[in-house]
Amino acid sequence: MDIKKLIPKHKDDQEVIAGLKKLSFEQLEPIIPELLVWLQDANWPIARPVADILKPFADRIVPEIIKILKTNDGEWKRRILMSLARSTTDPLLLNEIERIAKFPSRDEIEDEVNLEAIAILNGEYK
């Protein structure tokens, strides 16, 4: 099977979700960066199902999550924190969340990423 066929093609591509749900982490791993792109906007119908698929593997994709947290896209960062990082125990990810909470960039303040980071660090989701 060509795993690339399971990358959503548009913001409401629900047809790929059933196939994605059947895959192990090892099978999903090559397309994780492409799947994370679909979490950029919470209003896209595909965002929630993709987040639900990736959530069990969140601590295994920390390098990809940190790459997103280093972008200038505040909405995407907030969405990533909300959907994948609320219960993280990964020290690298927690360090980046702490950086956002203590020294937020302009986009992190504008999109309230820093408030989400503070809530995570305060254990509000445990």
Q: Helix-strand pattern, N to C?
A: HHHHHHHHH
Total individual domains: 1
Helix content: 40-55%
The CATH first-level class comes to Mainly Alpha
CATH topology: Serine Threonine Protein Phosphatase 5, Tetratricopeptide repeat
How does this model look, in words?
By secondary structure, the protein is mainly alpha-helical. It is globular and about 45 Å long. The chain has one domain: Domain of unknown function DUF5071 (Serine Threonine Protein Phosphatase 5, Tetratricopeptide repeat). Helix 5 runs parallel beside helix 7 and helix 7 packs across helix 9. Helix content is 55%, strand content 0%. The mean pLDDT is 96.
Task: Name the features.
mainly alpha; Serine Threonine Protein Phosphatase 5, Tetratricopeptide repeat; 126 residues; 55% helix; globular; 9 helices; single chain
Task: Summarize it.
With 126 residues, this protein is an all-alpha fold.
SSE diagram, text form:
Elements: H1 17-21, H2 25-28, H3 32-37, H4 47-54, H5 62-69, H6 74-85, H7 91-102, H8 106-110, H9 113-121
Helix pairs in contact: 5-7, 6-9, 7-9
